[in-house]
Amino acid sequence: MNKTSSIKINGGYPLHTFEQLEEIYKEYITEPQDLKKIKEAYDFIIEKHKGQFRKSGEPYYHHLLEVAYILASLRTGPATIISGLLHDVVEDTDVTIEEIEKRWGEEVAKIVDALTKIQRLKLSKIESEDFEAEDHRKIFIGMAKDIRVIIIKLADRLHNMRTLDSLNPDRQIALSKETSQVFVPIAHRLGLDNIKCELADLCLKYLEPERYEEIVSLLSQKEKKLRRSLDVFQKKIADIIFEHNIPFEIFSRVKSISSIYDKIYKKGHQFDEIYDILALRIICETEIQCYEILGLIHQTYKPVPGRFKDYIAMPKPNMYQSLHTTVISGDGNFYEVQIRTKEMDEVAESGVAAHWAYKEKSGYNPKEEQKEIENKLHWFRDFVSISSEEHENASEYMDTLTHDIFDANVYVFTPNGKVIELMQGSTPVDFAYRIHTKVGDSCVGAIVNGVMVPLNTILKTGDKVEIKTSKSSPGPNEGWLEFVKTGLARSQIKKFLTKKNAELLKEEKIAKGKQSAIDAFKDRGVEEAEMMEMLSSDKVLKEFECETVDDLFIGISNRKPVPSAIINFLDIKKPVTLPTGKARNRTGESIPVYCRGADNIAISLANCCTPIPGDSIVGYVTKGKGIAVHRANCPNIANEKQRLIDVYWKEDIEYATYPVDVSIEANDRPNLLIDIMNTMSSAKVTISSLYAQIQKHNTSLVNVNMTIYVSDAKRLNDIFNIILNIRGVYDVKRVIH
């Protein structure tokens, strides 16, 4: 192969030789063993991919060589370059991962294995609307484990996009869509600006060719008009800096086509309103010099208000640092000026690849690098976390990833100064869940910039946020789902509510099953304590395949098994007993209350205060209607002394539900009643009546009165806690008529 020249392929991109690749990586890789392994990998792919050709006509190994060239340009390590050369060899030839590991080691084998698995995710036979999202989800999960896998995939996709002209139009569009949805956001977040811009431009070329060509034409015309003016402006800036003896380099750059497209078609600007079509980039040696140069420029040229950005003091999430200012030149043109150090410029161009560029004899450790990246790139830590979690479906995962990670552009601070990235419209609850699931679940309040604020407050860049938590917090409620913005928060709230409702349902089933067992065993003369001892035995639990007695009660509530089956297994005979009196109400229904020495007297629960099991109660001897049972604090019997009598809740109460009148006070808002009814439905609470009215003295407040059915006072208290978590509700109480 010609050592000194390169050939051109479609799109005008050069096709490099191995010697040109070697020339780049030898600038920073000098260990003989590493150099030998890279050359062996190249020779290996020449042999293994022999006879394979790309759609564009050149031998397949040229693609692998170009991927390695892009990686070497980013100054990646030997393992990354070797993996780039080998990334298709397992998929397209008879080579195995085991053979890769034997020849190039475990590190390279793991990277190639991850890349191979991603490549095999083209599940074209799956017919579902979730297919594309599922495909992308698996790609992200595969990439999240090792940053080098992401960088190799980006290099692979960049070269594929450069050679897209050789594919049919449908394939061009499909690959461009995938690239814009998957790879452009990742490149942007990693700070790989050159790769991101080139990928975005190529996507636009195939997805919207007319607008692409229109922008190319406009850009060409404006550049010609502004170039002379820019050259004059650049010389004046250079003279100013030179006079102050500050070492510097100065360059001009043209804004990318895709960036101009975004300004025009997504943000609604006119082409002539875009100030930074041409910009100057000034590279100096120190941070202090950046600010000195900024001051010198502002002394000479008037800055445009609102166009100054200090990304040195507050770096972007992808570690980008620079000073940006837009000034008006002497001829009335607007120019953006970017000022940064050489190190900042390397990170601006190559992002994470520049920050963690391979350095020989520096104790390089890929695992430590991965951990450091997750610590410094907060979004990447969240990306790894989200990719590791289970999601209901691929669309939910992609929605969370796209909005929570890729669209995050609001930057707020924790109390100790750590920056947290959130999407527009996020609230303190979104912030809490971004910190940790436990922080979100136990959140009871928020302080923003030193002031206590409602949990639905919209956060803005620069806010300092502190979350108040409580171990006794009832946790999130369904009202939170109305205002949280991030998919992460929404997903965790739904998980909490599902688990909480399942626990409430489980408690109800245990209580129902236990009561059924008590009734059945009592019919055979067995009291509750003795029954519990029987049912807790290993013999019974093993026979009915239950781990605990609670599991057995849940089974009984589902009639699997029925109590009679257990009784028959234990061979309990029904005793012969004499009939006794039993307190009943007028309809003949059993009453869970008794009065000593009054077995044959009618007993009923008072309608005014609706006592339920667990309440403190007292009996009131009526005239001709037996004993009415009231709550002890019922105002209707407060002045009665002569007619009061002690009554007691039975220990063996049959499972039943009782009507209770409750009153809710809340701030009036749309959908309040719907939320109350949905919350009651989710908690499996029966409502027999509901009435709402605006308060006369304050039209912003509303009273909601309803009658619900509950089994006892503990259950009622749990329901009250659930109601208090509904957004806008500030009080709930029982009603006494």
Can you describe what's shown?
48% of the residues lie in helices and 15% in strands. Strands 3, 4, 5, 6, 7 and 8 form a 6-stranded mixed beta sheet that branches. The chain has 737 residues and is an alpha+beta fold. Helix 17 (378-388) packs antiparallel against helix 18. Residues 1-10, 122-131 and 576-588 have low confidence and may be disordered. It folds into 6 domains: 7-207, Hypothetical protein af1432; 211-355, 2-Layer Sandwich (Beta Polymerase, domain 2); 375-487, Beta-grasp domain (Ubiquitin-like (UB roll)); 498-570, no CATH class; 593-649, no CATH class; 658-734, 2-Layer Sandwich (Alpha-Beta Plaits), CATH 3.30.70.260. A hairpin with a 5-residue loop joins strand 16 and strand 17.
Number of DSSP strands? 23
Arithmetic mean pLDDT: 81
- The CATH topology of the largest domain corresponds to Hypothetical protein af1432
Poorly predicted ranges: 1-10, 122-131, 576-588
CATH architecture of the largest domain: Orthogonal Bundle
Q: Multimeric state of these chains?
A: single chain
Q: Helix/strand-derived class?
A: alpha+beta
- The shape is elongated
Q: How many structural domains are formed by the residues?
A: 6
Termini, distance in Å?
A: 98 Å
CATH class of the largest domain: Mainly Alpha
Q: What proportion of the residues form beta strands (DSSP E)? A: 15-25%
Radius of gyration: 36 Å
How much helix is in the residues?
A: 40-55%
CATH superfamily of the largest domain: Hypothetical protein af1432
Q: Treating each run of at least 4 consecutive H or I residues as one helix, how many helices?
A: 27
Biggest β-sheet: count, sense, barrel? 6 strands, mixed
